[in-house]
Amino acid sequence: MSEKRATREAYGATLIELANEGVPVVAVDADLSGSTTTAKFGAAYPDRLINVGIAEQNMIGTAAGLAVEGKVAFTGSFAVFATGRAYDQIRNTVCYSNLDVKVAPTHSGITVGPDGGSHQMLEDIALMRVLPGMRVLVPADAVAARAAIHVAATTPGPFYIRLGRAAVPVIYDDDYTFELGRARVLREGSHVTLAACGVMVEQALAAAGQLELEGINAEVIDVSTIKPFDTATLVASALKTGAVVTCEEHSIIGGLGSAVAEAFGEHAPVPLARVGVRDVFGTSGEPAELMAHFGLTGADIAEAARAVIGRR
Amino acid sequence: MTDAGRIAAIEAKAARMRYDIVEMIAEAGSGHPGGSLSAADIVATLYFDVLRHDPTRPDWPERDRFVLSKGHAAPVLYAALAEAGYFGRDHLVTLRKLGSILQGHPDCLKCSGVEVSTGSLGQGLAIANGMALALKLDENPARVFCLLGDGELQEGEVWEAAMFAPHHGLGNVTAIVDHNGLQIDGACDEVMCLGGVAEKFAAFGWEVRETSGHDVEGLLDALTEPPADPAVPVAIIAYTVKGKGVSFMEGDAGWHGKAPSAEQTAAALAELGSLLDAAMTTMTEGGAR
Asked: What is the CATH number of domain A184-310?
């Protein structure tokens, strides 16, 4: 686990791969093509990167029009603007017409860092998850991001792919394959289930390591697809361990924790703890400082695991 | 066909569409007659003359595209699509009813001939631009026409899109503003002053044309004359009367979004029926007046 790469680094590079393979991808960005890395794609395919300027609503609308005509339209910008500012465009144009628009912004979550709360999107999974027809992917590392972008590009209809700014450890090998709607058990265990997405997968694995030293055997699941949600895998794990902790770099309202709570309420009523940002906005700081500040570290997950096991 | 005959044929279609609009909204018990009637001549000129399209092949790649950004004027689009043959006229009475292909606002997943779903105002021009950009990338000669309402111009996204089209050289886009001057709460200039609409589009780099939106000859000229610079998109400011064709609806913002009563429907259809008869007679006589 020595190599570190941001999930956003996979973005522009993967679009180039897709174009090389003959997939009719285009990218529409809003003056952030350097940050999102779509500029790399634009350097290789100048006609297929469209910059709309600082106009996120128009970014989604233009992408929708490109998709109407058969293009696979990826959009850029930061998660907070791409989802919040253009929500109506995503709802009423992209999803309502079931278009091939792949909303794939970068700079999600608190790991955006020093830019602060205005730029740290913590509600995007919630906003995207409730839209009919929208699939929501939260890759854990750059390898998974590349695979997720491939799947989204070659599966018809709208997708949301949550990418991050900060460099995070690469946990998957290059032969990793992304299965839409399938959660992946990374580590088997019998005492508690740690269900994580995105950069929190690394933290959940760290928590499992700590818990092992205490004789607690944790099962770690990478829930890289929040929607469609893999109820079967998660319920099976919950029924086996009898206690679950969800881990997300997102509000505990509306995201992975909510998706798990909804599924478990119907299928597996076991004690549940949600590790995430607790209904507050972010703040300036370095990513590692913020992870500790908001209680999102491996140690925080381990603490939540001990508590939830106690409620079993 | 002589020019007079060509114009008379379009006018007859528009008259038929106006009758259908009122009839279907009355049957639905709700809907938007004012802005549907104001746009009838524009939409008739497009569908029955200007657009290259084939109702038997709604996916024909080289068809010209039409985007109804003012989606609440769905009845005018449905009237044109039915008259053109995209679906049977028997669907018109199902407007806004459960299970209908004719949703309250156009739904491309349900209704043949609708290129993209619209209804949330301000979004159509951006979509039209994206379509035009894709056509350019594919070296497809088709054109994209987008009809906007004037009240809709208060949405910021319209101006994001207005900035975009000239910048990207989208000479294959034509925006048409149905400038009837009224919106739900009253006169546009009282609710939120639009200023000079023509001047605004010109300032963003569009070739601007102004015409009466009820003068078919003027509309034909505005819609078919190529731009001086083929890379410059055309904006047509079409001055219209909201509710055009029904005397008691004309110029009254109250008819933006309500259905007529049975009595009002009978009166409206009597007026529109006379107009239709006259238009049909004129057409039959080859446009002589």
From this structure: 3.40.50.920
Say how many C-beta atoms besides its own lie within 10 A of residue A16's C-beta: 17
Residues whose CB is less than 8 angstroms from the CB of residue A236 and which lie 6 or more positions away in sequence, other chains included: none
Number of A:B CB contacts under 8 A?
104
- To test the contact with chain B by mutation, choose from A31, A50, A59, A62 the residue with the greatest count of B C-beta atoms within 10 A, namely A62
ipTM of the complex: 0.95
Rounded Cα distance between B95 and B103, Å, is: 6
Considering only the beta carbons, identify the residue of A65, A67, A70 that sits closest to B126. A65
Count helices and strands (H / E) in chain A: 13, 14
Residues of A with Cβ-Cβ distance to B108 under 8 angstroms? 97
CATH superfamily of A4-169: Thiamin diphosphate (ThDP)-binding fold, Pyr/PP domains (3.40.50.970)
Cβ contact A62–B134 (<8 Å): no
Assign domain B3-284 to a CATH class.
Answer: alpha beta
Domain ranges of chain B: 3-284
The predicted model scores a pTM of 0.96
Report pLDDT digits (tens) over A8-49.
Answer: 999 999 999 999 999 999 999 999 999 999 999 999 999 999
Each residue's pLDDT tens digit, A234-261: 999 999 999 999 999 999 999 999 999 9
Is the CA virtual torsion B222, B227, B230, B234 positive or negative?
negative
Please name the amino acid found at residue B80.
Answer: A
Strand pairing report for B186-187 and A225-227: unpaired
